[in-house]
Design goal:
about 25% strand, single chain, alpha+beta
């Protein structure tokens, strides 16, 4: 499973911040990625890309499922209340370009915080972030510029606690190094089960989102 964004430094710092519980009780989570598909690979023809082609497994749900993987890794598995998959743009593609999911996490720090996830391929102003609202303060991760911020409730402003422009190429290298390192360490059944259970949880979530959206569309 090639989720290289697990190896971004800024996201690791954001995960450590969540684990520190300095934000109080987590109340809601908003995750969003939306970037204009023709800008993804400017030297190629977006219409013939995997991302734009249903038969090749394209579409916002699978192409941007990094965010679903991130949500489950940071906050655990979730229960859906709502999911839509739509083509909103005039792009020459035969797949969905917008996915919106809402629900609650089953158990995160003894709570069930509400969440919203949006995956899009149509926004000319690119965005990629996760914002978490706690009872004491809020925090956010910006995946485009590699920052982690905490809201200073006294000064009423966002304080940057980590900033490093994430190098996507190096994240692939670190992913490969991790894979090779696991081979060198030998097979560990316990570690394998933990990894496998997470990967299956992500796949289940993607299937449930698609099924929910299909059923909602059929009912209209």
């Amino acid at each position: 499973v090639g989720y290289n964004r697990r190896f971004l430094d800024s996201l690791r710092v954001f995960e450590e911040l969540l684990e520190s519980r300095t934000m109080g009780e987590i109340q809601s989570i908003n995750i969003e990625v939306d970037q204009y598909l023709p800008d993804w690979r400017p030297n190629g023809n977006y219409q013939s890309s995997v991302s734009a082609t249903k038969s090749l497994g394209g579409g916002a749900l699978l192409e941007l499922s990094h965010e679903v993987d991130m949500a489950i890794r940071l906050f655990g598995e979730f229960q859906l209340d709502y999911a839509t998959m739509e083509k909103l743009s005039g792009l020459d593609i035969d797949v969905e370009d917008s996915v919106t999911v809402e629900g609650e996490f089953m158990s995160f720090q003894n709570r069930k915080p509400r969440f919203r996830i949006h995956l899009g391929m149509i926004n000319r102003a690119p965005k990629r972030f996760c914002e978490v609202v706690g009872s004491l303060t809020s925090a956010r991760w910006n995946g485009l510029v590699g920052t982690v911020e905490i809201f200073n409730v006294l000064d009423r402003k966002w304080d940057v606690v980590f900033e490093k422009q994430d190098d996507v190429i190096s994240s692939y290298e670190r992913q490969l190094q991790s894979f090779l390192g696991r081979i060198d360490l030998g097979f560990n059944p316990a570690d394998h089960e933990a990894t496998k259970s997470h990967e299956l949880a992500v796949l289940r979530a993607l299937e449930e989102i698609r099924a929910f959206a299909d059923n909602l569309g059929s009912a209209k």
